[in-house]
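Hi all, long-time lurker, first post. I run a small reading group and we've been trying to get comfortable going from sequence to structure in the token notation. Rather than ask abstract questions, I figured I'd post a concrete chain and ask someone more experienced to write out its structure so we can walk through it together at our next meeting. Sequence below, copied exactly:
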Amino acid sequence: MNRKIRTLDNNRLDTVEKWIGEKQAELSDFQLLENYNFLVSTVRDYSEGVKTLREEVSNYQRNQMILQEYMHEKEVAEGFDDWLKEKQEKEQEEINEDTEVSEKDDSDAKPEEKED
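-- Answer (accepted) --
Happy to help. Here is the structure in token form:
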């Protein structure tokens, strides 16, 4: 499920804030003004957060591309691939050893004898 996150146009928020200002007397009678202000500020904060997140993702992707370009240019990629493969093999061996040890411990355990 891929959803696009839309940011609200600040003009829309400004329109809502202007409307709230015009209706302030009526809204304060019902204590709705505080709710509207809270909602508007929350939406504005959310919108700014989404913009910041998009910028961070964009910077991360750009840095990732630069790193890949550097690794290929300096011919480091092959060495890194070999190192990564070696590391994964060691981790897999450790997992296999741990599994064998725990299976051995389970088989060594003596079954409890019931007293009659």
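A couple of things your group might point at:
The chain has a mean pLDDT of 80.
The helical segments are 10-22, 24-29, 33-73, 77-108.
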